[in-house]
Amino acid sequence: MTNDEGSERPRKIVHVDMDAFYASVEQRDNPELRGLPVAVGYPAARGVVAAASYEARRFGVHSAMPSVTAKRKCPDLVFVRPRFDVYKAVSLQIRAIFAEYTPMIEPLSLDEAYLDVTENLKGMEIATEIAAEIRAKIKQVTGLNASAGISYNKFLAKMASDLNKPNGQAVITPKNGPAFVEQLPIKKFHGVGPATAEKMHRLGIETGADLKEKSFEFLVEHFGKSGPYFYGIARGIDNREIKPNRVRKSVGAEDTFSEDIHAFEPAREGLQPLMEKVWGYCEANEIGAKTVTLKVKYADFTQITRSKTVAAPLQTISNLEEVVGLLLAPIFPPRKGIRLLGVSLSSLERQTSGVAPQLRLAL
């Protein structure tokens, strides 16, 4: 396997990302929704937007936004109940198209995946042509648009897929990679969330060039195990392999809030997009989970975790929401404000059933 640093034959990595996937499926299946600002989710007081159409995004509506805020930004917003069984079925159609080109597929969620097409089943040499063909076939089979990024590693392929969205693709070559990273604002880096971006800002790191100036030791000191990753990507280097069919030990997501949380409902609301993210990963990879862990970090940076293990793998996202609710309720009222919440799934195992579970999202 070649690496990123001056190797004779760089890898050819494609990141495929469906455009406004859930919302686009709803607009495809209901012509009356086409051209309208659509949010997948529930308009209830504690509802959260699971996905927003591009028409809605023009008003500033985006996923993980409280439904009340979304409606305020876009009074004509149309809410549609999520149909995860349909999204899973479409995702499997898309996965089948990927498999025509390469077995090296690493799904990230129902709507995005990495492909390694360095060696591919079609014998095609040009990765941009493979990406264009895949996108055309997705459109033909599903009626949906996909965007793609092509590069020599995962980080840059992911960055490239955002450059010409929606319904476009972009390539970042080994020659252009380091310069692209240097000019990139740090808040746009994949793997750098709002809390990390704020920490980097405090350290004087605003762009890739600023990040590149920091030593390996400095980055490890301030960012721990993420330090080596940041040191590499600042130089356009990311040697992570595409890992098909992997079962991780755990999958998690967390979020730091702009204002401390003191009540149950805002906490439950903040956890919803995190649950959707981890559940989406498990669905896309056909993985079941039996252990749910809730992480709570308080305003004074002390933290607790609470876990529950069930006898059989969770079957629906509603099951996950129920368990998280049981873990969350006893910590209220909290002794201090809550600044971060996280949810992770472990005791993971491959699901062998070929039947897509009927998923329902209760917001």
From TrEMBL:
Major subcellular location class: cytoplasm
Active site (record annotation): 112
Subcellular localization: Cytoplasm
Site (Substrate discrimination): 22
Coiled coil stretches, renumbered: none
Residues noted as binding Mg(2+) in the record, renumbered to the chain: 17, 111
Enzyme class: transferase
Keyword vocabulary terms for this entry: Cytoplasm, DNA damage, DNA repair, DNA replication, DNA-binding, DNA-directed DNA polymerase, Magnesium, Metal-binding, Mutator protein, Nucleotidyltransferase, Transferase
EC number of this enzyme: 2.7.7.7
Subunit structure, interactors included: Monomer.
Protein name: DNA polymerase IV
Organism: Rhizobium fredii (Sinorhizobium fredii)
Annotated gene: dinB
